[in-house]
Amino acid sequence: MGTDPTFSGEAIIRVRGLKNSFGDQVVHENLDLDVRKGEILGVVGGSGTGKSVLMRSIIGLQSADAGTVGVFGKDTDEEGRNAIAVRKRWGVLFQGGALFSTLTVSENIQVPLREFYPELDPLLMAEIAGYKVVMTGLPAEAGPKYPSELSGGMKKRAGLARALALDPELLFLDEPTAGLDPIGAAAFDELTKSLQRTMGLTVFLITHDLDTLYAICDRVAVLADKRVIAVGTIPELLELDHPWIQEYFNGPRGRAATAAIARTEEQTNAQTPKQVTG
Ligand SMILES: Nc1ncnc2c1ncn2[C@@H]1O[C@H](COP(=O)(O)OP(=O)(O)OP(=O)(O)O)[C@@H](O)[C@H]1O
């Protein structure tokens, strides 16, 4: 696994031979990864394996020691990925939401609009922000509120609304369900899935949340030993005998997530009306 030689579709992100280090600490070495257009790719790995650093490398916030990163079908250097024309095409939800505490939700959502389209009529910006608020399942009254007045789940949605401000093709989510209760996390997963479907988004999703992986990810990339050791569907990953993969997916939490998905599928099948023949 790792890089799929049979894949002939379009890779919206293509990373080859990436190396990142901080002083003596090598975080990535010879890391390869393809993210396919239209998929939700879950990115997992133990704490400190470099998931966030990988995301920062892709979006041009991290200088690599070696390797290439291509986005939207073009190999680009860090400067290229920082070019306005490229940055406009993706949205990022950083870990913790990273909302500006002195701005309202609506003003937070308008930050990218002001940055990339300063000539836009302020009334139109406010209208777009209002639309994004509703699109991410927040009540319209959340627009004039400050982040400190929101629940954890609402903050995540507000961060997502800001990431979607420019109608991106590509969405980066760094641990979007961390800190949410299971119901809030499941609702956020559903929102991500429905946005992927309706907007045709490609999603790079860093998570520790097994339920999220099972519920919405098309494929999962596993970071270990400084590189992506495997990419595939969960059943494909389960066939590998790497100790971290086995412990992660086949440990008690992994088994619980599998059982929960099986129960949901059973319920869905039971509710599906049987076809009447004759
Ligand atoms: N700016 C930095 N300066 C020095 N070291 C850094 C910097 N950013 C990240 N690191 C180190 O790189 C390693 C990978 O960090 P990263 O945040 O990508 O891990 P992660 O896989 O996202 O972890 P977690 O699951 O805990 O969020 C860590 O050891 C971290 O301390």
TrEMBL record:
One Pfam match:
ABC_tran
UniProt cross-references to PROSITE patterns, sorted A to Z: ABC_TRANSPORTER_1, ABC_TRANSPORTER_2
Which terms in the Gene Ontology molecular function aspect does this entry carry?
A: ATP binding
Query: Where is the ABC transporter domain positioned along the sequence?
Result: 13-250
Q: List the InterPro entries.
A: AAA+_ATPase (IPR003593), ABC_transporter-like_ATP-bd (IPR003439), ABC_transporter-like_CS (IPR017871), P-loop_NTPase (IPR027417)
| Keywords linked to the UniProt accession | ATP-binding, Nucleotide-binding, Transport
Q: Which PANTHER family match?
A: PROTEIN TRIGALACTOSYLDIACYLGLYCEROL 3, CHLOROPLASTIC (PTHR43023:SF3)
| The protein's name | ABC transporter ATP-binding protein
- Which species expresses this protein natively? Sphingomonas floccifaciens
